[in-house]
Amino acid sequence: MAAYATQFVMQHGDRMPELNLANWTGPSPAPIAGVASVIDGDTIEIHGQRIRFNGIDAPESRQYCDDAKGFEYACGRQAAEALDKFLAASRPVHCSFVTWDRYGRFVGECRRADGAGVAAWMVEHGQALDWFRYSHGAYAAQQTKAEKAKVGLWVGTFQKPWDWRAEHADSQQPAVSQPLGIISRRQVAQSYSCQPRRTCSQIGSCDEAQWYLSNCPWGRKLDRDGDGVACETLCYTTTNGRGILAD
After folding, report:
1. How far apart, in Å, are the Cα atoms of 55 and each of 69, 74, 99, 149?
2. What would the pLDDT profile of 89-100 be if each residue is shown by its tens digit?
3. Which among 40, 60, 27 has a CA at the least distance from the CA of 160?
4. Which of 93, 58, 55, 89 minimizes the C-alpha distance to 76?
5. What domains are there in the chain, each with its CATH number?
6. pLDDT, tens digit, 9 for 90 and up, residues 21-33
């Protein structure tokens, strides 16, 4: 049986990139329940086990989107915070196993303690997309509702998360992601220049963003809320819904 499974994966691997051989050769894990730590808009951690929601895809942690006025905002962080707030309303989370993905994560169907489906809620509120490749349209109705209501991602324009990852190869390493609340900014030593014009998604550190804000004629665009902090997702982390200046 194991030999057959190996041959099947080798022949059809290009059509099933998210599957892990352990799903074919080993027993299915028991359901997991507990208080979840949010990794990003489609991934949580319970008792040290990473769990990827089946059939949906949310913006990556470092992904930016455009709002209705064309201004950039941290849609990846917004999706994670929306998920964190949703899960906190009815704990614990219960997740049943579907498969393993290529990163060794448990892919599952998750519900809050009150029975509310997590993936469906995220899509219906515009914080994630129905990933037809894996959902086969399970959340198409919720996505249509969100798009018509122009909520979440649908209020402006955005790049589909799977396309964004294809352009940002270093974003395809979920194992190094940290739970919401302890994500700190990267320190990048470089010389800054007002040319060319940059967006938050192209900036590598809080120091760099602040330099552009203070020294470039276009820098004010990086501080949408006018609080003096540019590209806040680089400068702040989130703990219990409150912004904390990153170390």
Report:
1. 30, 23, 11, 22
2. 999 999 999 999
3. 60
4. 58
5. 32-162 (2.40.50.90), 200-238 (no CATH)
6. 444 456 889 999 9
